[in-house]
Amino acid sequence: MAININLNVMMAKRRIGLTELSDKVGISPANLSILKNNKARAIRFSTLDAICKALNCQPGDILEFVDDETADSQK
């Protein structure tokens, strides 16, 4: 997939755990874990908005575009 979710990096920078962020954002720890582990296939803008507010960051701090062709050539 060409979009990576770097939520785990942002959480580490902000020193916030999964349970605490889950409480602040209002989604289950299981769903947040799917995002954190880059297993999600989609994210709602309302969820992204809540995460950005809770972590005081921009969407670009969490979402990263990686060209599939470039990633394949680096393997």
Condensed summary:
This protein is globular. By secondary structure, the protein is mostly helical. Helix content is 60%, strand content 8%.
N/C terminus separation: 15 Å
Please give the largest β-sheet: 2 strands, antiparallel
- Give the CATH architecture: Orthogonal Bundle
Structural class: mainly alpha
Major sheet strand order: 1-2
Unreliable parts: none
Q: So what's the oligomer here? A: single chain
SSE order: EHHHHHEH
Our count of domains comes out at 1
**What's the rounded overall pLDDT mean?**
90
Number of helices: 6
Written account of the structure:
The chain has 75 residues and is mainly alpha-helical. The chain has a single domain, classed as Orthogonal Bundle (434 Repressor (Amino-terminal Domain)). Helix content is 60%, strand content 8%. It is built from six helices and two strands, in the order E-H-H-H-H-H-E-H. The chain starts with a strand and ends with a helix. The model has no long low-confidence stretch (mean pLDDT 90).
